[in-house]
Amino acid sequence: MVAERAKLSHLLGKLRIAAAESNLAEVDGLLRAACELHMDAHDLEAAVALCEVHGRDDLAAALCHRHGDLRRASMLYARAGDLDSAARLRLETHEPLMAAELFERAGRLDDAVALYEAHGDAMRAAQVLERNGSLEPAADLLVRALNSEHGRRLVGAEAAMACRRAGELYARCGRVDPAIRVLRWGGELGFAAKILADVGRNEEAIDLYLEQGDLLSAAEVARRAQDPRRYHEFMARRAEQEGRLIEAAGHYEAAGNPFQAVRLYELGGRPDQAAEAARQGGLLDAAARLYERLGEVQTAADLLRELGRKDEARALLERAGTSSSDLAIQRQADRKEFLNAAVSVLALARQGEARRYEEALQYLEQVPRTSRDFLAARTMMGEVLA
């Protein structure tokens, strides 16, 4: 025992001198010899400490490995840069996910992916594949994890995240249809619709947004697709759902849906706008009814005449207590005696009803070029305008 201590002391002295002189080859030999003496004395800690003093984690790892301290050996191999050996020891200690991390750091990605997937960390496995540029295999792996019947199946928030990630990966590598399938399966309709819109499949995108109840996004797709009618339709439906009736009516009007526009203007307490929307939308009967309610009897009567219902127009004016002169003018207009009607209206205008000059001009403009009254009508129009 004394002889062994003396021998070790002698070796350590020579080791210090060799280290001071930077004689690496001699240091290596002396260090190994000194460690063997420590190991013979069953003093692993002293051997490892000696290796660490001289920066030899690789030698310390080999000693721990030989001694059976596999976890410590793995740690030291990793510190020494021997990630492959470190990973293999983690497999021996039944720590597959730590082994996978070491294989990943070592660049052995296939081994890392296989271990991550086999032991239930599909997201990490997919990340490794994605980082390596293998987008479709990464997506396929996530789908397998979602459908797994044997390994750990993804559920809840983790499943939703995996669905979204798989869909994004498929889309990035041009596999749009698989992307939509997995996103639909996971209930990620909004994200699926966005992918469809990004590749120009606007109708499918709109259908998905509507299925989800997202009218604003559906409207945005329609706007980008230069479909103003559908854009206004979706915006109208959204505004109506949120109780903004006048705004909704305006959108319906722009979408060419006067029925809904009139309905909402009336519900919103704007009969004047309802009447105008009805007239502009060709709903003359409804417009006449609304203008009559507003007290604009003359406008209502004009609309009834435009519909060919002259008797109703006359009766309306009579019910409203229209003056005999107005009734006479109305009859002249009904007989297409537009010049005579204009003369009668001008007489009233010159008696103080200045607002009727515009009405006179309207009658004069209706005199056809083929009429013998055309020249007189043009002359009179010039006088009125002057």
Summarize the topology.
Layout: H1 2-20, H2 24-40, H3 44-53, H4 57-67, H5 70-80, H6 83-92, H7 96-106, H8 109-118, H9 122-131, H10 135-147, H11 156-172, H12 176-185, H13 189-198, H14 202-212, H15 215-224, H16 228-241, H17 245-254, H18 258-267, H19 271-280, H20 284-293, H21 297-306, H22 310-319, H23 324-334, H24 338-350, H25 357-365, H26 374-385
What is this structure, in a nutshell?
The chain has 386 residues and is mainly α. The chain has 26 helices and no strands. It starts with a helix and ends with a helix.
Task: Kindly describe this structure.
The protein is mostly helical and 386 residues long. 77% of the residues lie in helices and 0% in strands. The radius of gyration is 46 Å and the shape is rod-shaped. The termini are far apart.
